[in-house]
Amino acid sequence: MTATTIGVIGLASLVVLILLRIPVAVALGLVGFFGYAALDGFGRANLMISGVPVEFASTYTLSVVPLFTLMGAVAASAGLSSDLFQAGRVLFRGARGSLAIASIFASAMFGAVCGSSVATALTMSKVSIPEMLRAKYPPALAAGAVAAGGTLGILIPPSLILMIYAIIAQQSVAKLFMAALIPGIILTVLYSITALIYYRWLTGNAPEPEYAQRQSDTLVRSFARIWHVILLFGITLGGIYAGWFTPTEAAAIGALGAILLGLVLGRHKMSDTVACFFETISLVSSLVFIVIASAVFSYFVVQTGVSNQLIGVVKGIGLGAIGIITAVCVLYIVLGAFLEGIGMLLITVPITLPLVLSYGYDPVWFGVLLVILIELGLIHPPMGMNLFAINAVTKDIGILDIYKGSVPFLIAPLLLIVLMIMFPQIVLWLPAQLH
To answer: What is the distance, to the nearest Å, from the Cα of residue 13 to the centroid of all Cα atoms in its chain?
Structure first.
């Protein structure tokens, strides 16, 4: 049996295991180990399984993951989301659909210190959905705005998905963070425009409800309550951009800063800080297990040469650069309806990245594109994780309304993808300015 045949059988086996609901980490590890054993025997496979995970887990870049995760856990525990929503509410007061736009703004700001989409959606669901329903907003709009805003948590740096992509694709975390910043701002604006249009479409010419406009805070007072979020984001990302410290150092400073600010401002106690540490340990330990399993799988895929064979087949078909990136986008949109983001990333990147690079695309650009495609999966009915997260904590909105509300917001990331393909400098300009 040829190496390519073993590779194809391995990939097919992986699909079957995932369809059988075997955990992604277990599926990746099993296929990687037994696939490599089929290539070179169990003796070599045992050597690989004992060496690759240790080498991969000791990668310096991996240290940013627990530190930024801790920063996000502390930010959520300190109740920053409520302050951010109130600031957005004041900022957009008077606009049609102001509460939906405020929710998207707050999600973008919270994502700047969180890094997780589902965590952002869960947190903002508890804060902004009750306020929108109290103001008589259509339930579908309230759910859709929060679901879409939640996706900004994995695009606006620090992003957990971008950190994992940096590790498996061996790219610079700093460049990926900078590359995602401008698309993140553009997507925030596109989501806000979508919310504005959707509100008008659902309510016609009805005026903004009085409750939505009722606000006692001034703009200055509202933003004075979120100075710590701006400070944390400015120090971590600004320090990376200026070259003052590495992403790992920035993550450490951000985590320590979040803890100190939470304690100084009286937002949480030492017991809350300890709880955040345990939450981080629980999340990161399971995540590292998945990443190590993906390293074993990637090693197997490289040895089979499946990626090179795929490149040859695709180029033989005659697809151009635009054709291949369109096909890849369609593939990820379809997969996003069945797989969660991290699993999809770890399973596919060892195969799709070499293919895309062979057509001259930049790996940093492709990483940002992948995040946006994963965002689509997070709000794409029927399996979007953000939709289920909102349904779990919001008893006043049915799942069908959540599905209905998410559909108009799919247009914004699709439009951003088109803009990125037409104008790749949207992604690549800022990383080129890194000191």
So the answer is: 27
| Digit-coded pLDDT (tens) for 383-399 | 778 888 888 888 788 88
Spatial contact of 167 and 61, defined as CB atoms under 8 Å apart? yes
Q: CA–CA separation, 104 vs 81, rounded Å?
A: 11
123 backbone dihedrals φ, ψ, rounded to 5°: -65, -45
Q: Count the residues in the chain.
A: 435
Residue 36 has what pLDDT?
A: 85
| Of 156, 47, 129, residue with least CA distance to 389 | 129
What is the per-residue pLDDT for 216? 55
| DSSP H helical ranges for 204-226 | 210-213, 219-224
215 three-class SS: coil
CA angle 149, 139, 89 (to 5 degrees): 50
- Write out the two tokens for 342: 């991290």
CA–CA dist 292, 49 (Å, integer): 10
The whole-angstrom distance between residue 405's C-alpha and the CA centroid of its chain comes to: 20
Q: Which two tokens stand for residue 112?
A: 């700047």
Supply the pTM of this predicted model. 0.85
* Residue 30 three-state SS: helix
C-beta of residue 74 within 8 angstroms of C-beta of residue 259:
yes
State which amino acid sits at residue 283: L
Who's near 244: CB < 8 A, 6+ residues apart? Answer: none
For residue 192, pLDDT over 90 is answered with: yes
Helices (H), 20-79: 24-57, 64-77
| Alpha-carbon gap, residue 13 to 220, rounded angstroms | 58
Q: Two tokens at 1?
A: 């049996």
Closest listed residue to residue 353, CA positions, set 332, 378, 375: 332
- Greater confidence (23 vs 357) lies with 357
pLDDT at 311 over 80: no
Q: Which amino acid is at 402?
A: I
